[in-house]
Structure formats: structure tokens, C-alpha cells
Write a structure and sequence with these properties.
This protein is an alpha/beta fold. The chain folds into four domains: 126 residues, Response regulator (Rossmann fold, 3-Layer(aba) Sandwich); 165 residues, 3-Layer(aba) Sandwich (Rossmann fold); 71 residues, Helicase, Ruva Protein, domain 3 (Orthogonal Bundle), CATH 1.10.8.60; 74 residues, Arc Repressor Mutant, subunit A, CATH 1.10.10. The chain has 20 helices and 16 strands. The radius of gyration is 33 Å and the shape is elongated.
């Protein structure tokens, strides 16, 4: 229910009693007044969602009160009621801030239509105030990898249902993007979409954020406030980082998921809601359940339809597509024309392990756009990616042990000239041939500060051979980065 409290201001007792009975039968809390002075006292004491205001009153015109409350925060939506309606009067009332205008006597159907319109308008207004920019970002999930194609299929299939969805994955993988796509493709796409960052709200305030509070419920609660679940009524709510909510709130959240009702903090009236719930987490909730940090029954309520978003390192074939997309986006944003990525820059992007996932990639691309010269390509240096920990320049020793000398069978030359065996300084004495090769490759990359083309030239092998060697080391878990 978007509305709760309604104020009726009319000097005729039959009108007050009639409206009170009709509105109370619909479940609203109704307060009545017969003068502007009485109404002003009530408006200062409490917050009302809606007010029915008589045009002519013993101590003035209803429009006088309308003008006084027009600029107040959270002023009620006001419907002017009058027995002497004219077009000029109606236009004047609307210009002064009235939501609607009705002439006595009215029918019950007219009243129902007015309230329904007012509730829809009120909810839309509140949602826009909180999340006016919520869905401005592009919701398309980019990628050509099999994992992303499968992810898009899952999203499309479950979006059309009312199932609760639990989205898991590392930070920066795009869990919130998946949630927005679920909403965008759902039958509720034109209804409210409310996001709650459970990790960003303090333990003392999160219950109020979820369920709202009544005036005076706690210190600082100067007026009644609707919670995020109430704002999301008939729409979708995203519980971002659900694994971070305190155990004391988990049982209350479980009740909302089971019964679709709750009470505001400091209130005793149950509020029924109809919402679709989507949750995200970067935690392993099953392990959290085993440790007693997360309720098992709540976990199963949330995990009706699980969706896992893979990390970027497990879908490297999407890096180039994502990088190009981010480049186009940020060159437009910053007004810088660039011709793409240089080959070393793209190679560095493909080689990086991306612990921060897609979010780190986008931040890296935006930074490189700002640092690049207009009309040129993005250079490797502009990416600002730190060298990997073993890519350190090594000093050449004054002499190379004779037993370390190798011969390049391809040209018969001494390996000392082509491979710069000075890079093998401090190599342990009894390394296997494979281990010696691996160490030599890592040191060559260190000498060239991670530049594969230069390292391959130093090693007298092709870049493709070097790339295959590094891929093999990565699969073996032998990469030092």
C-alpha cells in the first residue's frame, strides 16, 4: 500500500464522516478536521500521504492552506472538494499545487479512481527522487565466450518468471548488471526497480532502510519514512551484497520473503507488498551457513534460481571486445579521438590477470583514454598496469659460469650472444632443463619489463612460441603472477 494516512478537512460533519467511513473501509488511517487551524496543527504533528480539502472553510479558503503547504517537504497530495465547482476555480487550484479537484456530491467509483491515481503518482515520484539515474547505464551484457552466451540464456529464461534469483561472483564481475538485465527483460520492467547496498548501510539503520519507520520511532526520526521494500511494491528489489546483513535482520527478511508483509520500525501495522527479489553476493553463502554466519532457511529462500557470473580471467576471449567497447564509450565521454589500441597495449590487456575483473578493465581503459594523445592509438604505457612481480630488471654479472653456456642449435652460435645469459644470474645450480628454460624466459621478460615482442627477440624465438610457453606455464599453475 503506497498510502497509509489521510487527512480530511471539511466543515460539514456529514462529509467528514462519509469520507472517513469510505476510506477506513479501504484500510487507511483517517484523521478529520473542520478548520484550517486544526489542520495546521495536525500537519505539524504528523505526516499524511493525502488530504481531502474543502474549498470553503469557516476560517478561510482551502487554497490558503494549499499555498502554505506547497513548498513543505513531504506535503500530502491534496484533492480539493467543493460544492461550487467552476473551470476557473479548478485551474487555479491545480496551479497552486492541488493533485485533483472533485465536485460534491461524488460517487464511490470517482473516489476510488482518484485514490488509485494518487497512489500511483506518489510511488512514482518517490522512486524517481531516490533513483532517477538508476537505469541510465547500458544494460547489454557483452561477450562472445561460451560462458557469457550461457549466462545470457539463463537471464532470458528466468527473467520472464517471478522466481527469486541469487547472483554470485567476485567483485567487479558485473553482478549488478545481470540484475538490471533481469529486471529489464521481466514483466515488471515498467514498475519500480529499487537497489539496496546491504554492505554500505550501517547495522543500526539497515532495518529502517529495508522497512521504513514511523515518526518518533528513534532519535532523529522526525517524520515517517517508507522503506525500500515499500518503494519497490509491484516492482523489483535488488539486495546487493546480501551476505553482509546482520544475523538479527536475517529472520525479519526471511519473513518478508515468506509472507510478503512487514511492519515499519516503531509501527504495528502490517504492510502487504508484492515484490520480486533479486540478491547478489561475492561470498560463499554455503560456507557462511556452515559457520553459522548466515541462516540456512534464508539461504534456501534466496537461492531459488542461482546465477554465477564468471571472473574475467576465465573468459579472456571477451577482453578485446570489452576493451573496444569501453574505449568507444570513454572517448565519447571525454571528447578524445583515438584510433584504437597499439599491438603491445592490446597484448598487455590480454595478458593481465584482472583481479578486479570487468570493473578494473573499464577503469584502466578510462585512465588510458585520458592519458593518450588525441588522434593516436592507446600505448601500453598509458594503461598504467603495474609490472608483474617477477618482471624485474636484473643486473648482469661480471662473468657467466661456463657450465651455464648454451648453444643455439638453430644457428650454431653461442647462446651467450643471442640469449644474453647474463640474465641467468643467481640461477640455482641443479635446475632441470625445463626449469632452466622457464627461469630464462621469466628473466628475459623482466629485462624487457614485460614486453613480449622484445623478450621473444632477446630469446631468439617467435612471439607465438613465447605466448604458448606462457599459456602452458599458466595452465600448470607455474606463473609467478
Amino acid at each position: 500500500m503506497a498510502f497509509d494516512k489521510i487527512l480530511v478537512l471539511d466543515d460539514q460533519i456529514i462529509i467528514r464522516k462519509s469520507l472517513e467511513a469510505q476510506l477506513s473501509s479501504r484500510g487507511y488511517s483517517v484523521t478529520t478536521a473542520k478548520t484550517i487551524a486544526e489542520a495546521e496543527v495536525l500537519l505539524n504533528q504528523d505526516q499524511f500521504d493525502m488530504m481531502f480539502l474543502d474549498f470553503r472553510l469557516p476560517d478561510g479558503k482551502g487554497t490558503d492552506l494549499l499555498e502554505k503547504i506547497a513548498d513543505l517537504p513531504n506535503s500530502p497530495l491534496t484533492v480539493i472538494i467543493t460544492g461550487h465547482g467552476t473551470i476557473e476555480s479548478a485551474v487555479n487550484c491545480i496551479q497552486l499545487g492541488a493533485f485533483d479537484y472533485v465536485v460534491k456530491p461524488w460517487t464511490l467509483d470517482q473516489l476510488n479512481v482518484i485514490i488509485k491515481k494518487a497512489e500511483a503518482f506518489s510511488q512514482l515520484l518517490k522512486v524517481n527522487q531516490y533513483f532517477s539515474n538508476q537505469l541510465q547505464k547500458n544494460s547489454e551484457i557483452l561477450g562472445l565466450s561460451s560462458t557469457i552466451r550461457h549466462l545470457r540464456q539463463l537471464i532470458k529464461k528466468v527473467a520472464a518468471t517471478e522466481a527469486t534469483v541469487l547472483i554470485t561472483g567476485e567483485n567487479g564481475t558485473g553482478k549488478e548488471l545481470v540484475a538490471r538485465e533481469l529486471f529489464r527483460l521481466s514483466p515488471r520492467a515498467k514498475k519500480p526497480y529499487i537497489r539496496v547496498n546491504c554492505a554500505a548501510i550501517s547495522e543500526n539503520l539497515i532495518e529502517s532502510e529495508f522497512f521504513g519507520h514511523e515518526k518518533g520511532a528513534f532519535t532523529g526520526a522526525a517524520q515517517r519514512r517508507e522503506g525500500r521494500f515499500e518503494l519497490a511494491n509491484n516492482g523489483t528489489i535488488l539486495l546487493d551484497e546480501i551476505g553482509e546483513i546482520h544475523p538479527s535482520l536475517q529472520v525479519k527478511l526471511l519473513r518478508v520473503l515468506q509472507e510478503r508483509e512487514f511492519e515499519r520500525v516503531g509501527g504495528n501495522k502490517s504492510i502487504k507488498i508484492n515484490v520480486r527479489v533479486i540478491a547478489t553476493t561475492n561470498r560463499d553463502l554455503q560456507k557462511a551457513v556452515e559457520k553459522g554466519e548466515f541462516r540456512e532457511d534464508l539461504y534456501y529462500r534466496l537461492n531459488v534460481f542461482p546465477i554465477f557470473v564468471p571472473p574475467l580471467r576465465e573468459r579472456r576471449e571477451d577482453i578485446e571486445l570489452l576493451a573496444d567497447n569501453f574505449l568507444q564509450s570513454h572517448t565519447r565521454k571525454h571528447g578524445i579521438k583515438l584510433s584504437g589500441f597499439s599491438e603491445p597495449a592490446m597484448e598487455r590487456l590480454l595478458d593481465h590477470n584482472w583481479p578486479g575483473n570487468v570493473r578494473e578493465l573499464e577503469n584502466t581503459i578510462e585512465r588510458s583514454v585520458i592519458l593518450s594523445e588525441s588522434g593516436q592509438s592507446v600505448k601500453e604505457e598509458a594503461l598504467g598496469l603495474m609490472p608483474r612481480k617477477n618482471f624485474q630488471r636484473v643486473s648482469s654479472p661480471k662473468s657467466v659460469p661456463k657450465d651455464c653456456a648454451l648453444e643455439d642449435s638453430s644457428n650454431g652460435a653461442n647462446g651467450e650472444e643471442d640469449f644474453d645469459l647474463a640474465l641467468l644470474d643467481d640461477v640455482p645450480e641443479f635446475l632441470s632443463l625445463d626449469a632452466l628454460e622457464k627461469e630464462h624466459i621469466f628473466r628475459a621478460l623482466g629485462k624487457t619489463k614485460g614486453k613480449r615482442n622484445q623478450a621473444a627477440s632477446l630469446l631468439n624465438i617467435s612471439t607465438r612460441t613465447l605466448r604458448n610457453k606462457l599459456k602452458q606455464y599458466r595452465l600448470e599453475g607455474a606463473m609467478p603472477f
